Each structure stands twice: as C-alpha cells, then as structure tokens.
Amino acid sequence: MPSDLKEGRIVVVGASLAGLRAAEALREEGFTGELTVVGDEPHAPYDRPPLSKQVLLGQATAYTTELPLRRDPDAEWRFGVRATGVDLLAKQVLLEDGESLPYDRLLIATGTRARPWPDPDEAALDGVFTLRTREDGAGLAERLAAGPERVLVIGGGFTGSEIASACREMGLQVTVAERGPAPLVGALGATLSKLAAVMQRNHGVDLRTGVTVTALTGNGAFTGAELSDGSRVHADVCVVALGALRNVEWLADSGLAAGPRGIACDAGCRAFTMYGIVTDDIFVAGDVSRFPHPLFGYQMLSLEHWGNAVEQAEVAAHNMVSPGALQRPHLSIPTFWSTQFGLNIKSVGVPTYSDHIVIAQGSLEARRLAMVYGYQGRVTAAVTVDMAKSLDYYRHLIETAAPFPPPPGAADRAIAADITIPSAVPDPSGLSHGPTVALTGHLPDRRLTVV
Questions:
Q1: CB atoms within 10 A of CB 124
Q2: With CB atoms counted within 10 Å of each terminal CB, which end of the chain scores lower, N or C?
Q3: Residue 388, Cβ density class (10 Å: 0-12 exposed, 13-18 middle, ≥19 buried)
Q4: For the segment 329-363, what is each residue's pLDDT rounded down to a tens digit?
C-alpha cells in the first residue's frame, strides 16, 4: 500500500448508487490515484426507486433514470463486466473475462438483485416479471401500458405494494398475494399493516393474505396461478416481488465474512474476514453491507435504503483515504419513504427493533398519524403517515435514546401517549418478502435459541 493514502489504486466493485457516490467522494476527499469502477450491468449508474413508480405510470422511461454526476470522478468505468472473486493475498479483483485488477484498497458495493421465482420454467413464462433492473422496468411498463386484464403481484412488501398502487392508478385489475397477515407487516408491524390492508382494499385491490402461490400456469404465456388455499387467480401479467438477494456469491472463496445477509463490516465500513478479523484495505457500502449500530444494541443492520447507500458510501470513501485516528463511523439513522394508494409513508429508525408501539399523533381512523416504536423503554423508531413534518422531532428522540413512551412534545393531543400495545413484529420466515431493514442478529422480542 502506498505510504500516502491519497495515492495508489482503488477498485470499486458495483456501479451502483453507492459505488458512484463513493467514487465522487474519493475525489472530493483528495484521492489522486487510479480509480476503477466495475459494474455487471452494461450502463452507467441509474436510480432504481422510480422503476416501481414513475416508470410504471409512464411519467418517465426506464432509460431516463440515470443518476446525475455531482462531479466527474475521473474513473475508468468497466461496464458489463462481472467480478468473480477477490484474492486477498495478491490484492486482486478477478473478472469473468479472465482479467484481474490489482488494488491497494477495495470497495465492495454490489448491492442486491430481485429474488427470482423458484421454478425456472414457470419464471420463464411470457408475462412473468421481477422488478430490479432498468430492463425489468422497461419491460413491465410496456406490458402494463398495453392494458392487461389482471395483474398478479406476489409479495406485499414495499415494492409489491407500490406496483399494485401503480396498477390501480392506471385502472388495471390487480391481485396481491401475501404469505403474511397483511401487506408491509414485515417492515411496520401489525398495527400499521392493518391500515395498509384497508387502503389496498378500499382502492380496489383483490388482496389475499395468509396464502402462498404454489404454481404459475400457462403454456408459453402466463395465464394464472394456483394458491395454497386451493383457489386460482386468472391473470395475464405476474410480478414476483419476493424481496432481494444480496450479491455475495462471487465472494464465496474470498475469506471475507460474506453470507446471505450481506458482508459484515465494522462501523467504519471495513470488511471482516470469515474469522471476524477486520481488514484495513477492503471496505463495504450500500445494500450488501451488514454493520453494527450502537443505537440498536450493536446488532448488525442490513438496510435496503437509498439514503443509507449514499451516506455509507461517503463514510467508506473518507475512511479509505484517512489514517486510523481520522476515520469516522457510519452512525446515521435509517430513513425510508414510500408513496402508495394516496398515502405518504415515512420511517425513521428501525421499526423491527421494537417490543411496543404507541400512536403519538393523529389516528388510524383519520389515516394521518405518527406511530412511535420502543424497545425496553427507549424510543427506537417512528413511522408517519401523511405527517412527515413531525419526523425530525422523532429522529431527535431516537438519537438521544429518549424514554418510551415519548413525552408530549410534537404531539397534537393534550395528554401524553401512554397507551402502548405490542409491536407484533413478525418472524421474517412467515413473510413472502423480507423487510427493507433487517436486524441480522435476532428479533428483540424473541429469545435466542441455542441449538
């Protein structure tokens, strides 16, 4: 490694939101060496959230969502090339075309991909889609614009719910099949998910909960699905929204702590080896990372959030070119937003890290509220529905480890909100999709089982 951290060779694997922002931040931090960014997709980094919203509604095309450059990172871009491994001893990234890229420091930002339908033959039926890439968005938007008779969405997480919302906005008939008791239950817990279920049904969604899809049917083209309760859904388009898989398989022989829940790193984004030893030349950022957070019991967090990818990339870039004493931790509080069925849902903190909730403002009946989540007497999260202005107040409560239930302050009611109910966060194995925030240790209101 060069004596000056601002020089040498840095390789970024993942031409993603995190990869792009890290490349820009490295130059802002004064890095003057060689910078190479490797991406397996054939185009420049683009924004994914519009794919399930504006692109499906025809307000934008899948090919106009390219991320703007904040500055020219003066990088060598290697698009359409897949990384196949890392040699920690030789300090090289191995590429599928047989080439190897030497590095002094490496940033892994390979993100996630859509979880595919488990039966490859059924997944290959014409009319069956996942939604993750630009090509996915373009193909699905074209099919929806053609006016199918019915769309089946498998999975009631944020992506599945946003797709169903877009379909209803376009006047399309839509069925949502969710294995759990309600849509969004894995992310928001039982109480708010009931509101989500009411909103879907009020907007004309044929919502089926507590069921799984056992088979997709069709002869070349998708015609419908069979459900675990014995019923059938006739549809001509199917969107598989079963959550995400982390892109870690290429690291299987690397010796890094990479697994189904991501790559483990410390709060400074430095990757761990499989033996729990921290590396000083390999960093991780974005959806593929698992990192400890002091506000959530130092449990390892996995986040699939836009804001986290940006903030973590900037911390990783800073630490890659800074000596140990000047390195800083990634401690930002997770935030997330979603617009669906006329509701603006915003979240701060980790709702799944909770044992009780309280409605601090508004009401479920009014469909405008702020719900605060607590764990062992401390505020750990808040979710607002059409009340986003209150979110900063609750963020402050989380950052200062304020007592739960929270004192009146942002509240629009005269009395303190002291009627708490269990948060009822489900076990993720009971869902057809994972939450966008996962505590990769254990759920706090469940005992660890020692096998």
A1: 12
A2: C
A3: middle
A4: 999 899 999 999 999 999 999 998 999 999 999 99
Burial 85-105 (b: 16+ CB within 10 A, else e): ebeeeebbbbbeeeeebebbb
Q: What is the pLDDT of residues 260-302, one digit of tens each?
A: 999 999 999 999 999 999 999 999 999 999 999 988 888 899 9
- Secondary structure (DSSP) of 310-358: HHHHHHHHHHHTS-GGG-----PPPEEEEEETTEEEEEEE-TTS-SEEE
**Strands laid side by side in the 150-154 sheet:** 128-129, 237-240, 150-154, 173-178, 206-209
- Token pair belonging to 108: 């892994």
Predicted model pTM: 0.93
Handedness of CA 393, 399, 403, 404 (dihedral sign): positive
Contact 246, 283 (CB under 8 A): no
How many CB atoms are closer than 10 A to CB 204? 15
The mean predicted confidence, pLDDT, of the chain is 92
* DSSP per position, 105-123: EEEE---EEEPPPS-HHHH
Report the range of poorest mean pLDDT among 5-9, 214-218, 281-285, 417-421. Answer: 417-421
Residue 267 CA to residue 284 CA, distance in Å, equals 10
Strands 173-178 and 378-385, sheet pairing: unpaired
Amino acid identity of residue 247, one-letter, is N
Task: Identify the DSSP state of 156.
Answer: -
Domains parsed from the chain with CATH numbers: 9-113+245-326 (3.50.50.60), 116-242 (3.50.50.60), 335-439 (3.30.390.30)
pLDDT of residue 441: 64
Can you tell me whether residue 301 is helix, strand or coil? strand
Helix axes 17-28, 306-320, angle to 10 degrees: 40
Total Cβ atoms within 10 A of residue 451: 2
- 8 A C-beta contact, residue 260 and residue 300: no
**pLDDT at res. 1:** 62
Q: Please tell me the distance from the alpha carbon of residue 203 to that of residue 168, in angstroms, as a whole number.
A: 7
Which residue in 42, 87, 103 sits closest to 320, CA to CA? 103
Residue pair 421/404 in contact by the 8 Å Cβ criterion: no
d(CA 443, CA 447): 8
DSSP annotation of 20: H
Does residue 40 register a pLDDT over 80?
Answer: yes
Q: In what order do the strands lie in the sheet with 270-272?
A: 76-79, 34-39, 9-13, 105-108, 278-284, 270-272
